[in-house]
């Protein structure tokens, strides 16, 4: 069952994290920009649920998938594309963080929820050009094993799933995560990042994979709106009555 938001929040609600991949990555000739990115490193990522110091009074799990967490190198690079625009990357305190991780962390900060990164067993190439080629060539229903697992879901009543729109679809590790876990009776909110698309059919795909969950459309945040993450999250939480 899908429940759609009844209130639009600017262009952020009903429009959700690597879909320049969906419509075509942005090219750049800015070598200085690429060199600056290479000087930064990825933030270490846990394969387990990261507990919130606030004690998680609302029993919320914020789970997310992001490309930077799923590479096998400390730096992400490209000769052809502007990876900061195309790969949903940001640099914060000298470390590379994905747009979806930024959104998930902000939701956790506002709700007191726990955070979990969906990690594929086989990492994606840190060469963004190679990753694009591999993903375009991959079958639509490609299966990916996961190396991170939540385990016991009984402590959560609400799950927020944050993900990028890849070629108008869910990334394979997100599908694997939904297949692996049973959210029956739980509220499941879809939140996404995108280059220029809306949810496309991803919310319907989530509902099909989790038929006994109460699936809600959250919001879509575009790559060029990442500076508005905090405001977008707070506005969504208010309009969705999430904090009641």
Set down the secondary structure blueprint.
Blueprint: E1 2-3, H1 20-23, H2 31-38, E2 41-42, E3 60-64, H3 83-86, E4 89-92, E5 95-98, H4 99-111, E6 114-117, H5 128-137, E7 158-164, H6 172-180, E8 187-194, H7 202-209, E9 214-222, H8 229-239
Parallel strand pairs: 1-9, 2-5, 3-6, 3-7, 7-8, 8-9
Antiparallel strand pairs: 4-5
Give the tags:
single chain, about 240 residues, alpha/beta, Rossmann fold, six-stranded parallel β-sheet, three-stranded mixed β-sheet, about 25% helix, about 20% strand, globular, Flavoprotein-like_sf, signal, Flavodoxin/NO_synth, Flavodoxin-like domain-containing protein
Please summarize what this structure is.
The protein is an alpha/beta fold.
């Amino acid at each position: 069952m899908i429940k759609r938001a009844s209130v639009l929040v600017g262009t952020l609600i009903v429009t959700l994290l690597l879909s320049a991949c969906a419509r075509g990555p942005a090219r750049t000739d800015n070598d200085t920009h690429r060199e600056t990115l290479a000087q930064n490193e990825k933030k270490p990522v846990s394969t387990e649920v990261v507990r919130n110091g606030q004690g998680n009074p609302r029993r919320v799990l914020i789970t997310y998938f992001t490309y930077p967490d799923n590479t096998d190198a400390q730096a992400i690079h490209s000769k052809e594309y502007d990876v900061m625009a195309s790969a949903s990357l940001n640099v914060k305190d000298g470390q590379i963080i994905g747009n979806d991780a930024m959104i998930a962390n902000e939701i956790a900060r506002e709700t007191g929820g726990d955070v979990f990164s969906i990690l594929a067993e086989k990492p994606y190439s840190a060469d963004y050009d190679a990753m694009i080629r591999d993903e375009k060539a991959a079958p639509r229903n490609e299966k990916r094993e996961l190396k991170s697992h939540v385990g016991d879901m009984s402590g959560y009543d609400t799950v927020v799933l944050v993900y990028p729109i890849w070629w108008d679809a869910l990334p394979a590790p997100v599908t694997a995560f939904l297949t692996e876990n049973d959210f029956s009776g739980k509220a499941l909110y879809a939140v996404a990042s995108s280059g220029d698309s809306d949810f496309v059919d991803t919310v319907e795909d989530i509902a099909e994979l989790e038929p006994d969950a109460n699936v809600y459309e959250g919001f879509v945040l575009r790559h060029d709106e990442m500076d508005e993450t905090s405001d977008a999250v707070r506005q969504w939480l208010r309009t969705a009555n999430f904090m009641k």
